[in-house]
Amino acid sequence: MNFERALIDVAVLWMITTPHEFAHAWVATKLGDDTPELEGRVTLQPLAHIDWIGTTLLPFISSLLTGGLIGWGKPVNTTISKLRWGLNGLLLVALAGPIMNLLFAFALVILATLTRTAFVDLSDFATMAAQLSVYLAVFNLVPVPPLDGSKMLIALRVPYFIYNEIARFGFVLLLLAYQFTPIGTWINNTSLRITYEMFQLTRVLV
Predict the structure, then answer these.
(1) Is residue 1 classed exposed, middle or buried when 0-12, 13-18 and 19+ CB atoms within 10 A define those classes?
(2) Are 27 and 43 in contact (CB under 8 A)?
(3) 80 HSE (CA, 13 A, CB side)
(4) Three-state SS at 45
(5) Using alpha carbons only, how large is the chain's radius of gyration in Å?
(6) Could you tell me the CA-to-CA distances from 48 to 39, 114, 163, 192 in Å, in that order?
(7) How many CB atoms neighbour CB 37 within 10 A?
């Protein structure tokens, strides 16, 4: 059990969850929904987006005991009736989180590249955070509730009663998918490939 690594994992999760949830809130506000603003979510203050169980306790325990990382941030509430373009607006709000994680990962890759010789520990930390941020983006695109990708089902006008039934067993479906399908390997390999391409692009630009 590596307590230092577990604390670092939680810190990284805080760091990548904050812009993810902020992006949801910011886009919803721009589309006319004041719900996130009223709930204090249009901010980069981490405490506004942290779920103490899902973003702190559970990730710490899972990292400590298994070396893996399981967790989630505090969901951003939106009111579909207030969103411009309705269900399509909801889809834009959902996609904002993963897109922000990709942008944040690219910024971390630039930092890792610039510090790779003078500040090795910082470069390694930024690299790990970038990989996890990309993983979070790809993972959240899986169309299973409560992940962001599930909003594609709503945008495609899947009846709510079907969506709600899927949502009831969303966590179980994800566990079964990881256990009996290659989706976990695909997400991991895709995330690593995207991160690698970011480093390749950064080496050309920097």
Answers:
(1) exposed
(2) no
(3) 9
(4) coil
(5) 18
(6) 9, 31, 28, 29
(7) 14
Give pTM, 2 decimals.
0.93
Q: Residue 61: CB partners within 8 Å, gap ≥ 6? A: 6
Q: Which residue, 131, 132, 135, 111, is CA-closest to 123?
A: 111
- Residue 63, CA distances (Å) to 12, 59, 101 in order: 12, 6, 21
Model pLDDT, residue 184 = 92
Cβ(77)–Cβ(39) under 8 Å?
yes
Tokens 């630039």 belong to which residue? 110
140, 76 Cβ separation under 8 angstroms:
no
Structure tokens at 193: 């490939």
At residue 113, the pLDDT reads: 97
Token output for 12: 């990284």
Q: Which residues of the chain have pLDDT under 50?
A: none
